[in-house]
Amino acid sequence: MNAGSQPSFVDTSVLVYAVADDDPARQLVAQTLVDTLAAAQALHTSTQVLQELYVVLTRKVRRKFTNAEAIDYLDRIARAPVTTTDYRLVRQAAELSGSDAVSFWDALILVAAARSGSTRLYTEDLQHGRTVLGVEIVNPFRRARRS
Known about the structure:
Layout: E1 8-10, H1 12-19, H2 24-39, E2 43-46, H3 47-59, H4 67-77, E3 82-83, H5 87-100, H6 104-115, E4 120-122, E5 131-132, E6 135-138, H7 142-146
Parallel strand pairs: 1-2, 1-4, 2-3, 4-6
Antiparallel strand pairs: 5-6
């Protein structure tokens, strides 16, 4: 996983695993990644990711976060650059999803990652090792699954 100082976009699931105790092996990997990127000021995300993050933390994890806990975590993540989902991004994602066989929601993430200047997208939801729009897709949990 070699997270360094290069701008890197972090998807919802990675941010959830970093703070939810549903999967201890993935939690350790995600916490380390998020902490490393934040310390290097290399963490990037989007308004879409923050919206999904709030919903997952307050409704879908085993120990649901209170509203205040979720907002506190959102505030911490939002200290990093946040790409806004505007119409131009939506349109580019629609074009990508129509031409590249990815879902619209995944295309929104890929376009936001590219727009943010990130060279990597950390996610478990797309094909590891693939590069789309100049952004390398990295599944930080690949090794954690084999252990």
